[in-house]
Amino acid sequence: MICTSLQHKTREEILEILQDPFVEMAEIRLDLCPLSLEDIEIVFSETDKPLIATCRVEGDAEEAWQEAMQKMETAVAAGARYADLEVGAPSRFSRRCREFCHEYGAELIRSWHNFSGTPDFSTLEMYYERCVRYGAAVVKIVCLCKNAADAARILSLYDKPGVQRGKLLAFGMGEAGRNSRLDCLRRGAPFTYAAYAENEATAPGQWGVNEMHKAIYGDRPSFFRNSLQMPASKSFAQRAILAATLADGTSHLRGYSPCEDSEAAIELAKALGAKVRRGSTLTIKGIAADGRTKLSVDKLYTGNSGLLARLAIPVAAQLAKDGTVRIDGGEQLRARPMDGAAGIMASFGTMIKSDETGAQPRLPLTVKGPLISGTAQISGKGGSQLISGLMMALPLGDKNSRLVIDEPRSIPYMFITADVLKAFGVTIGSEMEGDSEMIEEGDWSACNTIRFHIKGGQRYKATDMDLEADWSAAANFLAAGAVFGSAEIQGLDSASLQADLAICDILVDAGASLSSSENGDDICVSKGPLEGFSADLNNCPDLFPIVSVLAAFCEGETRLRGVRRLRGKECDRASAIEETLSRMGVPVSVEGDEMTIRGENLCSRILNGRLLKGGAYSSFHDHRMVMALMVAALGADAPVEIDDTDCVAKSFPEFLEEFR
Question: Which of 39, 48, 84, 542 is catalytic?
Fold first, then answer.
């Protein structure tokens, strides 16, 4: 990335400059800009771009250092990504700076400058070690170069054992050091510095930002998208459509957008007897189901929606007149095993028989009820979808039931189900066991058991509700903005229970700049120096394809857990991701439940000729893989051709048009 150094600028001038798309991030020279503390707070809080707070002080004058620290702390408290402090700062102020950086989550740059020349390598090493010892998250070593050998000596710091890519800024000043400002990016520097205008250089030999931008990116297009709108979450919509079908009265589901899976849910609703009027608001007159309702339905079709099939199994067992219903789906769904379904349904007296013999049932299959209320202890390793179906069907039973779920996965989707049911007048009690403190902080992975208490004899009541916009779709645009420019998406609920809201935490952990509007409905992301990260995707497996592409552009190693959840998706996503990234030239490996990806930041890839390899790729007929490939194509060395893009219609028919 290019960090634009700004000096002698007023608050208004800085805010205007930060609107320039060529300005990816900026260093604000607090010692050289005429800014009050109020100005500093405004500047550092009113932009999504990563900012560095720098305030140089000559000598040890107490008053000057007190003023500098006050400016730096104000900037960090307002949102500065980095604080740059000379390694020779008095120790008391050095400690203070480390403390407020830790308190507010800023990264500390410890820097050493030599404006008279470049010392020998052992001296450079000494100052590097001193910066590390004094708390540097990023070390900055900058010296005046008098010849090419000086520049080469500074850059050789990147070869020092133990130096982590993305954590060192080492380059030269002066005409002899000019090219090292670009070469440091090849070596793994997280960013380099440029002047906003050629006559505004903060050090000799500094490039102008336009010149630097052209040298790195050339004519490569960036990704800048504003005011994007996402479709309705199909996971949310399908649950709401089925609940409205079971309800007494007419429900109105606002914000509906058609996709194959949601349309399949509508057709299933009609097969169960509901009357549906389509539009941006779905109007559904329900069947007023209760414990005595028995429908003359002998066959249900669920399209290629694994969720819909698993919701339909318990509901069919509960409502079918003779307790027997045949459930079928599309060709793609028929190929996916219903892991664990037979054992779970047997716990409630329902038998599942597949046409094909095998370890796990597949569609088409016959469901033979009735569904018997009671208590069952079941494994949640296979996911949440069938459990959600039981949560929808058991309230209609004549007695109370209890679900005890061990080792639960996709936990947020269970609570989406409970939330939708609550809107339709059906209540389900819950208890979670595990690390209670971590669970309260929203860490679902800390939960090892969930108990759902389901009262029998309940009835669904019609309601009017808004369907949430889809975080799964949004993740692709947000990741593209984080690597290649910026993205703003409107209408997302930042308090949603959707599991794929986790993309926000992932992007922040990776180093992207993320913000939301005051009401939490608008999410903005922009480029930042990206680093490898770790993420547990067991509860949000649909994020795996796009997060793996994001990891390819993050400097260093990324570890993603939850690989086993990918085997039974629209394709074997674990194998699909591994094959695709490997062909693109990204080192990737899978061991057990973890995928490891070795990434490299975008500037380094461009300058070293290591962009992702373009060419013909398979989507594996998986809508999530298509979306991830479209994002990957932005960082490829040639066009990426995808064999089947029509499969995006499963969740987001307009994706290609919106993305392009």
Answer: 542
